[in-house]
Amino acid sequence: MTVETKEPDPKCMVRKKLAECIKGPNLIKTLIIIVCVGVVVQQITTCIRKLIDKPITTYTHFDFNKTLLYPSVTFCREPPYKFDKMQEYGLYGHPRFTSAWRDFDFENIDLDEMWGNITYDEKDMFVQYGFNASRDNVDLKATIGFINGRCYTMSPKIRTQHATKQLGYAVTLQHTAEDLETTTSVFPPGYHVFIHYWKEPYTEVTVYNGGMVESLYVNVGETLDVKLKVDQYQMINSDDDPCIEHHNYSANECTTKYVWDRSVEAAGCSGPWMESDVPRCRNYTSMRNLITAYMNTHESHHSSECPRICSSYLYNGFVTDRQKFYSWDSTATEWCIKTGPAALQTHLFIYFNSMMVSVYEERFNYDWNIFVADLGGSVGFLLGLSVIGLMKMFGKTWRMFIQPFLRSDKDSGRKHSETSIATIDVKNLDQNYFDKCNGWCDKISGSK
């Protein structure tokens, strides 16, 4: 005979325990736990999203440097072209006026040679210049453009260890009386001054992605003291706002090349102010198309192909003193009216008066340390759990809900095998009992 012990169904046990959670006072506890778990899941999801797409925060601090890197300074003359030389080539105004090219002799005049002759060179612009009390500390480089003609950029060769006026830039520029009489520009005779980071060379093309440039205009005969202040920007490359950290990359050069290529593509030829492998324009129609395309593109190109550089400097210039028509005679200790060539000279002093640099640095505002802290705060505050508590909870869940199902499957197979063995044993036991009984009966009958 086989005796089977009936064990409770694990599924029924789970249903019973779940039913107890929603009976009486346990219902309120269950609802609170469900709400807290939902809030925790929502907060954890938010934290995971922050890890995937990390937020960026800008930190501001001030550094007092032991050395200072001065900016590059570009000077563009106004008027930008020599009026007498332009007349020799049959041009009566600024080259931007396309009608002036109607009778130009494209067949016999080399455009590159003509552009060099009608723009001003170094000796036409500078009387003297220097940096840190020496001319040898300055690297002077020419840049040819279309609107501003030939400009010259000064870049420092050394860093300075002191912030004083005597160790900054000192520049004396000049004009002639003929410039005042024959100018055809919308600006009065003077100089455009552009202060910019040395990695971003000057360009007359408008740069929207970078091109952090400070600009001033100085009239003929003025004396300006310009105090500098520098802001350093350290940005992070991202999909929404990309930037490049390559050492030799320049957003200004990239944008300028983009505008040149678009203009050359529209006209089918290039101009003498461009660096291009396409041949120069050789007739009035192509030159007119090139000038029109360039003037329409150099400010409204909307180029997105040239991201900014990740680390850059913005130099701000503040005019602290501005004098005109008068100069200080240190011998006579009195103000004197400028006359002769001195009245047509322009003086600039550009310098730092402080070693302090304002730093604007972008940093990721979320990492694994903050994620673990947020996770522990949310789980601990809303569910009252710690790491040890979580281990106990998982262990209890395993014993109460998962292990019974696994045990039931094993017990069912084991039960089947034990039943089969027990049945066989009972059959054998019954057969032996009958054999013994038959033997006893035979002995009793023989004794009679």
TrEMBL record:
Gene3D superfamilies documented for this protein: YojJ-like
Keyword Phosphoprotein on entry: no
Gene Ontology MF terms: ligand-gated sodium channel activity
A GO-annotated cellular component: plasma membrane
Protein keywords: Ion channel, Ion transport, Membrane, Sodium, Sodium channel, Sodium transport, Transmembrane, Transmembrane helix, Transport
Family, similarity comment: Belongs to the amiloride-sensitive sodium channel (TC 1.A.6) family.
UniProt KW Ion transport keyword: yes
Subcellular location: Membrane
Stored InterPro entries: ENaC
Membrane-traversing stretches: 368-391
Name of the protein this chain belongs to: Uncharacterized protein LOC113498621 isoform X2
Taxonomy, superkingdom: Eukaryota
Primary localization: membrane
Membrane topology label: Multi-pass membrane protein
